[in-house]
Structures are given as C-alpha cells and as structure tokens.
Amino acid sequence: MFADVSFPISSYQIFSYKIPKSLSGKVAVGMRVKAMFGRRKAQGIVVKIKKISEFKGHIRPIESLVDDQPVLDPTLWKLINWLAEYYYTPLGIAAKTALPSNLSTRYKPKVQMMVKATGRKSELPKQAKAQSAIVHHLQNQESFVSVNSLNEFSSNPANVCRKLIEKNLIEMKEKPIIPDLTEFSFKPIHKKIRFTDFQNQAINKICERLDKNQFNPFLLHGVTGSGKTEIYIEAVRHTLDQNKTVIILLPEISLTPQIAGRFQAVFGDAVALWHSKLSQSARAWVWKRICAGYYKVVIGARSAIFTPLKDLGLIVVDEEQESSYKQDSRDPRYHARDVSLMRGKIHNAVVVLASATPSLESYYNHIKGKFEYIHLPERFGGAKYPSVHIVDLIKESEKTKIYGSLFSKILLGKIAERIEKKEQVILLHNRRGFAPVLRCMDCGEVEMCPNCNVALAYHRIGEYIQCHFCNHIEKQIPSKCKECRSFDIQLAGAGTQKVEDQLTQQFPNAQIERLDQDTAKSGVNITNVLQKFSDRKIDILLGTQMIAKGLDFANVTLVGIINGDTGLYIPDFRAGERVFQLIYQSAGRSGRGHIPGEVVIQTYNPGNPVIQCAAQLELKKYYDICLNERKALDYPPFSWMIRLEISGKNKNAVERATKILREKLGNPPKGIGFLGPAFCYREKLYNHYRMQIVIKSQKKIDPNGYKLHQFCKNIIYNGDALKLPGNIRLIVDVNPVSLL
Ligand SMILES: [Zn+2]
Ligand SMILES: [Zn+2]
C-alpha cells in the first residue's frame, strides 16, 4: 500500500510513500506522519491511500506516525481541500493553517476542585461551624461550585471539604481550567428575559430551520442594541437539544468579553474558548477535547471555524462585516465568513451571519434571495435610538477663531454635562500615537519608514517614532529635515495620545482611560479597563475602532466621534463602507439603557453622503448609494475579484516580473477584465516593492465565479506558464478586502 503525503511547503506537489508492514492498516487519511523529505525528516499529512503508485522511481517508506488516530474527520478534511483549492494554497499549508501546530504535546491544564452537596441529611456536631455553614451553602446551589469560592466560611475550605467528603455529605470533582483570556465572566443570569416580538420571530425562524437539518444561510440584521446575543443563546440551546454542536465566531474575542462571558454563564462547561492568546499546548489540549466530544460550543476568532466539532448544527458569525475575519498576512488568505458558509454546506448546518451593519456583499446576497433575511429594527428593553448631531468643524473654527482644536464647543459642553450627571462617555478617534506625521515646515518632506512607503507616527508616551505597518521604531526623533536640513520639523495631525492630552487639560478631574493597540500591548489589560468602565470608575473611555463594537454599557449616554472623516479618502473601493460602518456602530454604543443617548460627529465634510447617512442612521439609503457606485464600476458585490500581488526587494525585477505575468494572462475571456498592472497604493511595505494586477469577473456572466477561477488556475497551476524568478513573490488574494 502507498500513501500520498502533503508537506507544508509552497509547492502544490504531493509525494508518494510506501506504507511499511509495521504500519499496515494503521495509516489513515488525515493522520500526520513523519517521513524523509529530501535529506531531512519532515512531518506531513496523509491525503490519500492507494494500492498502486504511478511513480516509477524509488519510493521511500513512511517512518512513523505522529497520531494514533486522524486529527481530522472527513468533513473537516473536505473543508481543508476546498480551502486549498479556492485560495490557491498548497494542501499542506492549508492543513497547517487549520491544525494546531503542536498536537502531540502532553499538556495537562491545572485543575480546580469543585464540590456539591450529596443531598444527605447532615448531623454535624455543634462545634463544627465551618462544616455546617459550607454544607448549608452548598445545599442551596444548583450545581458544582469551586472550593476556593468557599473561603468566606473558612480560612481553609479545602480541609473542611475533605472532612465533609469523608462524611459523605458532599461530593467532589476536578474541573480543568482552560486558560481564560478574560476572567471577565459574567455571573449566570437566572432571570427570565422577556423577548421582543421581533426577537421571538427571529428565534422561531432559526429554530425551524435547525429542525430541517439542511444548509440554510441567514443574514440577521439587527440594529445596535437589538439583543442579538440573546437570539444566539436560544439558537444554541435548541442546537444542543438536538445533540449537535455550535461554532460562534467573534471578530476579536478579547474585546467582546461580555458575549463570551454570557455564553459561559449559560452553557458552562460545554463552552470552549479558542483564541490566539491560548498557548500552543493549551490549543492542542482543547483540540483533542473537542475531538473527544467534551465541548459542544466553541467561541473564538476566525481560526475557530476549523475546530473539529462533530455534528455541527449551527455557525454564528457575529459582526460578519469585520475585516479581521480575513486572514491577510499569509496563505491561505481566507475569509472566515466564506469558510463558514462552505462548512455549513458540508455539515447541512444553519449559518447565521449577524450584524448591525452587514457587509455590502451579505446585504446584496439577501437582496438576491441567497440569504434568508431577519430584521430586528428596534432596540431591546425599550431603549431608544440616540439623537445625532453633526458638527461642521470649518464653520466652528470660523465662528470661534480657534483653529486646530480637537474639540468643538458643543462636544465639550455635552461631555461636561455627562460628567456632572455621572453618566459615561465614549470617544472614538481612529488613529493611534500622538501625531501621525512629522513634517518639515520648509520643504514639506515627511519622515518616512525606511522599509515602507508610509509616514512614521510620533508616540509621545515612550518618545519614539514608529511605522504602523512593519513596527519599525526609531528612538532618536530627528531634529532636522533630511532633505533641506531645516530645523523646523513639526508634528502634524492628531492621534489618540494627543486627544487624551487635550482631554485631560479640559477635564482635569475626570477619570479618562485610553484603549488602543499601544495600551493593549503595554500591559494595560483590555478587560481590566472594560471592567472598570462597567463599574463606572471611568468617566470617559477614549479609543480607536477597538471600542466601536460589541460594548454594551447602559450608563453610556454620549458618544463623540472626534474626526468622522478619518479613512474617508483612502483610495480603496471599500473606504466609504468602512467609515459608514464605524460611525454607525460607534453611535450605537450610546443610550443602550433607559436613559436616552446622544452622538456628536465632528467632520470637515458635513455634506458627504457617508457622514450624512451615518448621522441619520439611514443604512438602507447609504447601501443603495454604495451599491449603485459599485455597480457602475463592476466592483464587488457585482463582480468576483482575484488580486495578484507581485513583490520583491528589487524594484526593477518586480516591474519585469509583473510585465511577464501580464503577458501570460493574455486576452481575457468575455466578462473578465483587469485593473493594472500598477504599483500598489502602499508601494513599499516591509522593504518589498509591490505591484498588482486585479482580475475582475462580472457576476452577470459568471454567477459563481467558476470562469474566473478556471482562468486563473490555468495560469497559476501551470508551472511552465508561470516561471517567476526566485527573488519574486506572487500572492494570490481571492476576494480581497482591500486593494491598497
Ligand atoms: Zn525640509
Ligand atoms: Zn514600515
């Protein structure tokens, strides 16, 4: 017998090995094996088992097995195959993306001792006060509680519990502690939630489809604060009752501890969290527990879509428009939303894509009848929508004669009001650092990153300038211009640190906290800040897009957007959609309790349709405008796109290779067209020059994108057709989220 093995290398080739007698009958598809690959021993994954090999040369044997059983089941294997093919990635690399890298480690998590009353009548001597108190307490608990939580009854509860176990009054079990990222779990909510009619309809619709056991994609479009999490919980309950499992995807799990906490509160031990902060060995352990069926619900960021749940019944993609679902930095450049739909198809599962601001793609799929649509047009618990004010910053400075101030009078007034009333404020400013640019005032030269075609941002805290792409840092702030040697170098623009600075001057007695990538990194725990904010120990929470979504605090009655125009003029076809979603979502953080909320948007472009529609909370109006624009230009969702990026350290070589590639592409068939070749907007990143050719295929001619894929495959998989020099890299980006 022979086995075809794929290795995590950037070649599409698969290699044949002999299965030695000692392993006969033990090797299966989806198992990892060790074998000689060239001159070294390497780990690969078995993709096929066959009786005869067509390879005529010397065939080497498989040396050993890494796993004693497949680490994937056939459904997941099917998904990985699709992933490899759809995203032009060698199978070995696609498999490596899906699997945790260190599955064979013997990781044992710490355990927590849990106790519960046995229900036996207790007859304890009078002097055993601690024992009586603990038994009494446990008798009033529904389920196991941790021994550590009993320290109010005794200084050594473990000791007391041991005695109670001897008397058979309580029982004990060990519970493994999966490394939690938050410790922000909310207490179990036992009160009955009264759903709105819209929520009830949504739950019924999803449960009806769950009962049918067939692939059914939904777009759950619920305004901010409409109680989508409650709907997920009911849908999960229904799925578990059917003895099936669930994946919940969240864009950034550490920013949405409330949702994760709620699930853990309701479903307890059945829930596993899957996120990047888990150590490799912890991941391996969780993976194996999922394989063994311990966990029924997995909550996590994009890679959670590959977790090996069996009998998957439901996938929820929360905030489905988020670009963090796209793996952008390496192959396969997959989009977890699209992978969810494929996995749902394979498992005959229900897929719920949910958002207050759906991606234009999903919105269009609903219009075209491809997704079933559920609308939640009103807020939960009787909360009202906030009222929104647009502040024209040009008019403002003409009136006040104060130029370059970050805060308008109206915003300052409203913040002061909130502080007075002990209500809370969220301020959004989507740019970190102190000043995004260092500019020479004589010749206009901007201090650039040596590796990237990007300006270096000044960070006052820690005193350095940094590239926000490659993270290049310079501790020496230049005192004179490199071009004209002038000493007149000034900081231009404002980042969150500067906003914080001015805010502190304006409100010296207010508690202000900043959340952006810098504070998140420098050890200020995101969860701590959110907990403090939840406990109302912070008056003003300032941050980048990190704070725009998912946060649900009833006492926030004012959201201020310092500069609504940020990102509006980036030359990308999704720029407007992104800014709209950001403003709309941020506005949604205001007035979620019974106190009505307000939103202030500061802008230099009050007439811009993005700002206008976001301020009026007119989603449909803006999406219609946006769809018309995209239609006129044949951009997604009216076309399929594949972006070919050619990069390398030598600019001329990149240009030459791009020219060759363009020639190879030749004349495209009808309905397919090219953008470029051209240098990317970010021409140089990480010391590599970048050019791109974007291939577009009109959906009206190519409804499923097959034509486009056929066309590209002929070029990319045909080794002879495409011979690029070794110092040139080709990236194939299917359905790119941006063209920068
Ligand atoms: Zn200069
Ligand atoms: Zn850089």
Key terms:
single chain; 740 residues; alpha/beta; GIY-YIG endonuclease; Rossmann fold; seven-stranded parallel β-sheet; six-stranded parallel β-sheet; 20 helices; 30 strands; 30% helix; globular
Topology readout:
Layout: E1 2-6, E2 15-18, E3 32-37, E4 40-50, E5 62-65, H1 74-86, H2 91-98, E6 111-117, H3 129-139, E7 145-146, H4 157-166, E8 170-176, H5 197-212, E9 216-222, H6 228-241, E10 245-249, H7 257-267, E11 271-274, H8 280-291, E12 297-300, E13 312-318, H9 336-347, E14 350-355, H10 360-367, E15 372-376, E16 387-392, H11 393-400, H12 409-421, E17 424-428, E18 437-440, E19 457-459, E20 464-466, E21 473-474, E22 489-492, H13 496-506, E23 512-515, H14 517-521, H15 526-534, E24 540-543, E25 556-561, H16 575-587, E26 598-603, H17 609-615, H18 619-633, E27 639-648, H19 651-665, E28 672-685, E29 688-698, H20 706-716, E30 729-734
Parallel strand pairs: 9-14, 9-15, 10-12, 10-13, 11-12, 13-14, 16-26, 17-24, 17-25, 23-24, 25-26
Antiparallel strand pairs: 1-2, 1-4, 3-4, 3-5, 6-7, 6-8, 18-22, 19-20, 20-21, 27-29, 27-30, 28-29
Helix pairs in contact: 1-2, 1-9, 3-4, 5-6, 16-17, 16-18, 17-18
The structure holds zinc ion (2 copies).
Residues 440, 442-443, 445, 481, 483-484, 486 line the site of one zinc ion.
Description:
With 740 residues, the chain is α/β, with parallel strands linked by helices. Helices cover 30% and strands 23% of the residues. It is built from 20 helices and 30 strands. Helix 5 (197-212) runs parallel beside helix 6 (228-241). Residues 181-191 have low confidence and may be disordered. Bound molecules: zinc ion (2 copies). One zinc ion (ZN) binds next to loops.
